[in-house]
Amino acid sequence: MSRATAVAHPNIALIKYWGKRNLALNLPAVSSLSMTLAPWRTRTTVEWGAEHDSLLLNGDAVHGPKAQRVWSFLDRIDPHRPAVRVESDNDFPTGAGLASSASGFAALTLAATRAAGKELNLKELSALARQGSGSASRSLWGGFVHWSRGLLEDGSDSHGAPIPGVERLDPVMIVAVVDEGPKDVGSTAGMQRSAQNSPLYQAFIDDSEACIRVARSAIERADLPALGEVMERSTFAMHGVMHASTPPLIYWKPATVAAIHTVFELRKQGIGAWVTMDAGPQVKVLCARPDADRVESALSTVVPRTMRLQPGGPASVEP
Ligand code: DP6
Predict the structure, then answer these.
(1) Residue 221: helix, strand or coil by DSSP?
(2) Is the CB of 19 under 6 A from ligand 1?
(3) Cβ 69 vs Cβ 132: under 8 Å
(4) CA of 21 to the centre of ligand 1 (A)
(5) Cα(274)–Cα(266) distance, integer angstroms
(6) How far apart are the first and last CA of the chain?
(7) Phi, psi at residue 155, to the nearest 5°?
(8) Which helix (H) or strand (E) holds 36?
(9) Cβ of 252 below 6 Å from ligand 1
(10) Which sign, positive or negative, has the C-alpha torsion 154, 129, 233, 217?
(11) How far apart are the CA of 186 and the centre of ligand 1, in A?
(12) Between β-strands 305-311 and 171-177, what pairing exists: parallel, antiparallel or unpaired?
């Protein structure tokens, strides 16, 4: 038996991933761009060689499709693998659109490959993590990360790569927690529905590379308003796709809309703050560190709880 432990932070997409060009290899229809978030983290220990496969998530045994997703992922690392014991803990709410599959599969990728005695470089690790959950491919690095859609059929060029510049921007991300319950439709199923029948899906895909270019240039110039603006363009394009799906995918709750308007109101008052949402009701707000108190107190009038996150570092194996 060999054992390894790894830690990874979640990430939030500023330019969104929604849709796949290859389901089996989990290849995205679009490139995306994210910011890694601290202090939240997943810590995962893998024992390669156990009596039987077992998965413990936040202290509870997991069975069924959720566990099967992990076993199939480990089969990709080694189709002849032994039984494996996985123990994983999140220090943040799991499954409410707060990106737990990103940090989860990033930490699992690092811990499992290390425990299996495989030496992979970061790009190979990212391409592997992608096959567990797309957004996990972005959690290997800290700061800003660009996950390329890639062109190759085998997906080997669809992995993350770091973008320098997070220190100069010094952004924070405030999470307005609207509802911590599990979501009705997970990202994987939601994307499939949008690809099958949303009339806005192709328009979202057609705009995505332009959004990436605008975001990269904003980061290069340390221009937070330009980055915030293109983040909102990508966010509302993705939610437009979701809303126009049949049946509609509306992850928003009344307090989601209230939080969005609170941010728009702050902007009218001259505060630089911009919203994003994923496949869940939470609103995440990007702003400069000096404005964070003002943004957080405005949001706390419309949602039960807020949390402040900042750029996080890379995933790592514990010694
Ligand atoms: C809305 O990475 O959870 O958060 O690859 O099917 O596991 P799978 O999907 P996942 O989707 C994330 C979708 C999103 C946008 C994003 O993070 O880019």
Answers:
(1) coil
(2) no
(3) yes
(4) 14
(5) 9
(6) 17
(7) 80, 5
(8) strand 32-38
(9) no
(10) negative
(11) 9
(12) antiparallel
pLDDT digits (tens, 9 = 90+) for 208-246: 999 999 999 999 999 999 999 999 999 999 999 999 999
3 state DSSP class of 309: strand
**In sequence order, what are the beta bridge partners of 35?**
12, 144
- The answer to whether 28 and 17 have CB atoms below 8 angstroms apart is yes
The three-point CA angle 102-104-106 to 5° equals 70
| C-alpha distances in Å from residue 51, one per residue of 47, 84, 85, 110, 250 | 10, 8, 8, 22, 43
Residue located via tokens 């567990």: 132
Phi, psi of 17 (to 5 degrees): -100, 120
Identify which of 187, 194, 241 to mutate to test ligand 1's pocket (most ligand atoms within 8 A of the CB): 187
Model pTM? 0.97
> Of all atoms in ligand 1, which is nearest to the CA of residue 188?
6
The residue contributing the CA closest to ligand 1 atom 1 is: 278
Average pLDDT value over all residues in the chain = 96
Q: Cα dihedral sign for 43, 46, 47, 51? A: positive
Q: Element (H or E) spanning 111, and its range? A: helix 100-115
In terms of Cβ atoms closer than 10 Å to its own Cβ (0-12, 13-18, 19+), residue 43 is: middle
- Which of the listed residues 135, 204, 235 should we mutate to test ligand 1's pocket, taking the one with most ligand atoms within 8 A of CB? 135
Q: Ligand 1: does its nearest atom lie under 6 Å from the Cβ of 10?
A: no
State the DSSP code for 183.
Answer: P
Q: Answer for the pair 205, 29: CB distance below 8 angstroms, yes or no.
A: yes
* Range 182-197 average pLDDT: 93
Residue 106: name the closest of 120, 93, 117 by CA: 120
Which run of H or E residues covers position 200? none
**Res 96: pLDDT:** 47
Q: Which residues pair with 37 in a beta bridge?
A: 311
Phi and psi torsions of 267, nearest 5°: -65, -35
Q: Which of 228, 221, 231 is nearest to 291 (CA)?
A: 228
